[in-house]
Structures are given as structure tokens and as C-alpha cells.
Amino acid sequence: MAETYFYNNEEFDENTLVLRIQKGEDELFSLLTAAYLPIIDLFVSALNCAASDKEDFVQIGLLSLYGAVGAYDFSSATFKTFASLCIRRAISSELRRISSKKQIPRDAIVSIDDADVFDINDPESALICKESVNMLTDRIRLCLSAYEYKVLNAYLKLGNYGEVATLLKITVKDVNNALQRARKKIKKSVGCSR
Hints:
Structural class: mainly alpha
Strand order of the largest sheet: 1-2
CATH topology of the largest domain: Rna Polymerase Sigma Factor, Chain: A
Distance between the termini: 47 Å
Low-confidence stretches: 111-118
CATH superfamily of the largest domain: RNA polymerase sigma factor, region 2, helix turn helix motif
Order of helices and strands: EEHHHHHHHH
Helix content: 55-70%
């Protein structure tokens, strides 16, 4: 039985919903999100990871759902089958990526006792810390476009791709793309090789 969706006193099936989102009615994506969040939660709940990581996996699932909408061509499998496969693959890929990153060489680990920590009660340390933050902020502002900087600031305040998209009246994919570009530019600007 096909899913039925309701929006502004209209009733339509899932294929019609996907087609309308593909044609630019991004506000309808919230209907798909509500329908597929339980499926994403089911995949994520089966993972053996920390609760904070599970939130990241839910975000990955939502992004892959959005990607599935754009890639779906109505020719073979149902959208539900196609989207579920996309979600499962994205979550599995991220799990493999994270697992490979956790293999940190022992000589790269530094004891917290050896780390330099500013004493906030010391006015000189507090001033140095504030100046360092201001210099880093200026460096980031210079390396990013105005659009990327606006998206990054909104993301840092809201912490959610969907809320940023709603606030800035852009798509979740646009938020993701802007943050990916910003991440690469910032890493290059501060001299990170990865």
C-alpha cells in the first residue's frame, strides 16, 4: 500500500511528493522527514555507538534521504526501497569511516596533563586567549565567502542543518555544500593537512 501524504488540504502519494520536491517545493521535504525518521532511527538504534554519535548518524540519514529524493528516477524500485537503501549505505559508510579514524597511533596521543591550558583567572592568559580567538575568527572570515560565513555562523548557533536551511531560506543540501567548502577552506587556512 502506497504512503499517502497531506499538505495544505491536498492529498497525494509518495511519488507525487518526491516529484514535487524535485521540482523545487522544498517545504514538502518535512513530510518525508516525518515519515522516514522512524526508519532512520531504526537503523541508528541498531548501531553500537555513543548517544552523541547516534545524533550524527540521524543527521547523515536525513542528508542521505534528501540525496535520495534528488537521485530517484521512478524507474525501478519504489522510493521507499530506494531511500532505505541510500540511508543504510550512508550510515554504514560513515560508521566505517569513523571506525578507521579511531585507530590512532599511540605516539600521537598526548596526556591531558602535558597540554597547555590557559588559566582564565590570570588576566594575561585571558587576554592572550581572547586575542587568539579574535585572530582565528578574522582568519576564518577572510578565507570564506560572505555566504559561507553566514551559513557557518548560523550552523554554530543552531547546530542543525534543517534549522539553518529554514532560517536562511535555502535547502539542506545548500547548507551541507557551504559547510563542506568552509571546512576545506578553514583547514587550508590554518594549515591542517587533513
